[in-house]
Inverse folding.
């Protein structure tokens, strides 16, 4: 008799089929939101471009160890599909290839694109690094022939000329080429990283890292050449053989200044150029002391200015990685908040599901309706989380003091999440009437101990069912909210929030300002 009680307040009776359809419709809506977001990302990554280009773009944003395997497949597939392979794929592989395969890969890329001046420069720098100076000089000359307005090729050729002689006996030819290049005043233009500007932004930390790596690669021969000339000057000055050396050191000093004042300012090339210039100036200072002459005020003033400019650049370089790491943390914060919240709500949902299994709540209470208050709390809570997530995202992209508010916004986020989870534990108790009240509302039931025992069991089952459904609704709305945030993020910033390496600042604008400030110390 008691088992046949149907307490409507606990979900017994009503349109079971309709209630199940509503729950399934909600789950389908959540699944559609998540799948739409995933398909949008997959379509952009794999369908926007043909497979070879898609994998090439993906490899550009990966560490060399990971990108290498992908690019090898790209080069192999491209060679199979095209009669003439694409040089940029091979050049990209050469940048990331293992040490013993770098030169053969660059040679293959250069053979396919011999008129590419920047490729010739990079190939030449790799040859120089391996001690193949004659071949490096040829590549530098060819780069200058294809891009005569770029002074970098001639400076690199001078460096190779100096090292072609095993004893470095005669620096006259290389210094003459440097002097000629100085007088020409052509701009120094460094190669840009192989990139996909239509798909990837050029302001992020990853692009900046590649760009600075290329500049350092091209400056290495010049730095080695500067050390060679300065070292030879130091030895000759110690032997009091200073004839022509003041003039030659002045040539090296002007080269360093020219390297620092590039068309696109950068801290790496500015630091190399100013260090070469300072080293040459110190040897000119030694020549003045050797001649028992007091160094002129212009010489002393230039030395002080160079040291001040290098200090400015050094302070920026010392703080650069730390600032990038802080900015990375800002961009990671919203993403971490999302997946950690989903994981936490999922844990509560699994707990509620297990509780309903133990109490057989999965078979009872199918028609149990949520209260308006419960739905309002969940809905407003998710809307509030979306607003907080938007604020967190905006502050992550803000410069200056805006990011100082991130801890407070993060605290608000977790407060809302905690409020939703805590309310869920108490919500079924408020939603469900007591056993005696439910029996009194049931006209056919007698209020006796057996009836109350049965009704209390119904109430426990209904509690577990309502708890599970509450956390299920919370998890579903949270997933929909995060999906909407991801799509909005893509529309506004042209990237997805998990592309942190591209979102993190490369401090490009700050670097330009610091270099400009450092060069302003030196004057025109």
């Amino acid at each position: 008799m008691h088992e046949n009680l149907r307490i409507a307040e606990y979900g017994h009776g009503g349109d079971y089929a309709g209630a199940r359809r509503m729950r399934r419709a909600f789950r389908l809506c959540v699944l559609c939101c998540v799948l739409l977001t995933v398909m949008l990302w997959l379509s952009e990554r794999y369908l926007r471009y043909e497979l070879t280009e898609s994998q090439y773009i993906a490899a550009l944003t990966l560490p060399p160890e990971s990108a290498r395997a992908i690019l090898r497949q790209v080069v192999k597939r491209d060679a199979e599909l095209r009669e003439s392979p694409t040089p940029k794929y091979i050049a990209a592989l050469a940048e990331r290839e293992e040490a013993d395969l770098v030169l053969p890969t660059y040679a293959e890329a250069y053979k396919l694109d011999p008129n590419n001046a920047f490729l010739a420069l990079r190939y030449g720098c790799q040859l120089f690094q391996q001690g193949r100076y004659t071949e490096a000089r040829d590549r530098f000359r060819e780069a200058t022939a294809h891009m005569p307005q770029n002074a970098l090729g001639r400076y690199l050729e001078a460096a190779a000329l100096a090292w072609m002689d095993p004893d470095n006996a005669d620096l006259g030819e290389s210094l003459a080429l440097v002097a000629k290049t100085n007088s020409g005043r052509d701009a120094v233009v460094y190669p840009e990283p192989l990139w996909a500007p239509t798909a990837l932004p050029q302001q992020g930390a990853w692009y900046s890292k590649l760009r600075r790596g290329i500049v350092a690669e091209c400056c290495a021969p010049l730095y080695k050449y500067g050390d060679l000339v300065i070292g030879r000057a130091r030895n000759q000055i110690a032997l009091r053989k200073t004839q022509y050396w003041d003039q030659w050191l002045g040539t090296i000093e002007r080269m360093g200044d020219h390297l620092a004042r590039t068309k696109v300012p950068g801290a790496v090339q500015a630091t190399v150029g100013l260090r070469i210039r300072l080293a040459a100036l110190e040897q000119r200072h030694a020549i003045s002391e050797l001649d028992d002459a007091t160094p002129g005020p212009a010489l002393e003033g230039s030395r002080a200015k160079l040291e001040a400019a290098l200090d400015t650049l050094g302070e920026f370089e010392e703080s650069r990685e730390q600032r990038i790491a802080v900015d990375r943390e800002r961009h990671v914060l919203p993403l971490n908040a999302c997946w950690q919240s989903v994981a936490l709500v999922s844990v509560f949902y699994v707990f509620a599901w297990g509780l309903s299994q133990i109490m057989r709540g999965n078979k009872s209470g199918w028609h149990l309706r949520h209260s308006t208050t419960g739905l309002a709390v969940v809905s407003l809570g998710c809307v509030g989380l979306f607003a907080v997530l938007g604020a967190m995202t905006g502050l992550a992209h803000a410069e200056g003091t805006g990011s100082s508010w991130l801890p407070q916004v993060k605290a608000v986020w977790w407060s809302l999440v905690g409020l939703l989870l805590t309310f869920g534990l108490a919500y079924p108790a408020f939603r469900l009437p007591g056993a005696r009240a439910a029996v009194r509302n049931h006209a056919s039931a007698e209020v006796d101990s057996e009836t109350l025992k049965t009704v209390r069991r119904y109430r426990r089952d209904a509690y577990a069912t309502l708890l599970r459904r509450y956390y299920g609704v919370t998890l579903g709305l949270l997933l929909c909210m995060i999906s909407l945030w991801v799509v909005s993020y893509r529309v506004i910033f042209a990237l997805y929030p998990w592309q942190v390496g591209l979102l993190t600042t490369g401090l490009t604008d700050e670097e330009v300002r610091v270099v400009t400030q450092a060069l302003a110390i030196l004057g025109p």
In short: Residues 297-358 form the longest helix (62 residues). The two ends are 101 Å apart (CA to CA). The mean pLDDT is 84. DSSP finds 19 helices and no strands in the chain.
